[in-house]
Amino acid sequence: MIPKDPDDLHILAGEYVLGVLVEPEAREVAGALPTNTELRRAVAFWEEQLHPLAELAAAADPPSGTWEAIAARITRPVPRPAARNFWGNVALWRWSTAGFAAAAASLALWIAVTPAPGPSFVAVLHPPQQDQAGWIATAGRFGLVVRAVTTATPPSDRAFELWAIAPGAARPRSLGVIPANGELRLSPPPPDLSDGATLAISVEPLGGSPTQQPTGPVVFVGSVKAV
After folding, report:
1. Is the peptide bond prior to 210 cis by the omega test (within 30 degrees of 0)?
2. How far apart are CA 42 and CA 109, in angstroms?
3. 80-105, pLDDT tens digit by residue?
4. In this structure, what DSSP letter does residue 171 have?
5. CA atoms in the 13 A half-sphere facing the CB of 207
6. How far is CA 183 from the centre of its chain?
7. Are residues 33 and 41 in contact, defined by beta-carbon separation less than 8 angstroms?
8. What is the pTM of this model?
9. Cα separation, 173 vs 59, whole angstroms
10. Helices 66-75 and 80-94 sit at what angle, rounded to 10 degrees?
């Protein structure tokens, strides 16, 4: 049933554009679009907001043998261990190529429908001179969250350290060493975080840079944007 509450309708439209609704719900939304003006406006809004995020994911071909494995599962039983291995590989492929776009789209939906007293920011960090996303940073009323969307890890005797460079600043400021689980949370958001700021990740000793400035190579960098 199409909700009448504007907030619920807005969320439903976002889920429809993201493609996360089950088939009966998606059919119901599609059937209501010609006659429901508010639903049509909400869907148009999310299409405009979310479709450009698909460009953040690089195109990639599935691993060789993927389609053969699918055909084998359809035509004959597959032992349970083999099924786990196959789907594990597909999940890894999905995450490494297209998972970031889905995560960014879901994040945009969450930011848009969650009230916040101040501005919200997002930054996509990637290796210098490359377009493939490696980390995503989001900031809002709950603070700053930086998460890995890459399998890249520092050497065993080193750690990733996050830096912020405020617009117009000449020197970066350390925001802390990123834990081994690939997620750093800071609350409240650091004062350096504003539209046009730069976030960067360098490789440093396990306890962080001893000089309060990057001593190792900068391996990921991204610009902060207000959303």
Report:
1. no
2. 12
3. 444 444 333 444 334 333 444 555 55
4. S
5. 2
6. 12
7. no
8. 0.51
9. 35
10. 140
